[in-house]
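Field: sequence (string)
Field: structure_tokens (string)

Example rows 1 and 2, in order.
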Amino acid sequence: MKTEKDLAITDDISALTSILKESDAKEIVALRNELTDTWVKKQIYRTEIEMKGSVLNDIKFPDKASKYWQCVREQNTMFEALMTESFKLRLNKIDALKLQRELENCTDELDAMEVQVKIDMNMYSRANMEQTAKDRVREIKLWSKIKAELDDGSFDTQNVETHQANSLKLQLENRVRGLSPYSSANEVANATGPLKTLNRISNEKRLNENN
């Protein structure tokens, strides 16, 4: 269901059509309902299938633990961005009040027209920021859902370092399996070097535990 904010983006298009050639203005008016629908349903951030299939792919994050902790990182990044967005929205609302006060005090017609343009820009900016914030909330909730699906009690969800020796080893093994005779020296070194180091660390840890 469309809201007033949604409608404000595309239904009040007189400011746009007034600066277009008549033929172009007619085309935009004819597409008004479709443009409103497009604005409402457009994708901003990732879908659940993109989050699971692309971000949390099995090569880079080969087990549940590594996937879970990547979810933590992604969710926190989106939350921090949402907080930043909230500050921008608060400043936007202050700007709107200032512009409205400025418009009320205008005595020159051209000055008033200029301020009105700034008010329209402010409203459009706010509508986009609010839509962006809403989609950030949607993705934050999805990361929470995926974390819950992954958390089966088989790994530590409190200390990120606990899983890393095993997860990183699996990741590097995947990279080594992906090497070919045509892989560059840097690609080989970047895959085999860390894997060899991890194996050495694991062997030293086992020896220390047995002594």
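Row 2 begins here:
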Amino acid sequence: MIPLRDTIKSRTVPYVNYTIIAVCGVVFLYELSLGARLERFILAMAVTPAEVSTTILQGDVSFRPLATLVSSMFIHGGWMHLIGNMLYLYIFGDNVEDRLGHLGYLLFYVLAGAGAALTEVYFQRGSTVPLLGASGAIAGVLGAYFLLYPRSRILTVIPLFVFFPVVEISAFFFLGFWFLMQFVQGALSAGIPADGGVAWWAHAGGFVVGAVLLPLFLLARRA
């Protein structure tokens, strides 16, 4: 399913959401300019589960492995990876920012992304395959949207072989089905070493982290 837009209008301009999208775009253009140096850049900025796992288990406070929990959110592995992530962020992020406020949304986004990455680290703790992309943080945004706007309608393209019908689907069903697919795929990949494909557990974990963090952020904003 490919979302096109939702039916909830944001009451404020989502400056932070737009900035995150712009930063991811600029960083990707920088990646394209690196040529042969790209691999070194990816290894430096992406999460390496085995490295982060070792750092945490040893009680080490080394800055670089832990910093990648944040830096990895802003790098992508290709045009489709970038466009797909930014489409979801554009559609769902503005409404969550509207409810959390600009600074609250930024902190929420970073924490959700770090939590998503740590979920993948837990399930792939021996993997040396780099984990990169904004999808874990965006999954956190989806988890928050799921709780905030379950009755929202999502205009959606459903690819059916040569047909591409456009229908409106409730956010409850769209995001619930999305989460279920991530969880099932993660469960099916249990015990299988990561090969650089989709980080299913980061998606499922990010969704749960976002849903858990949302009430805390709403309470903090009210206070």
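free_text_note (row 2): The CA atoms of residues 45 and 71 lie 6 Å apart.
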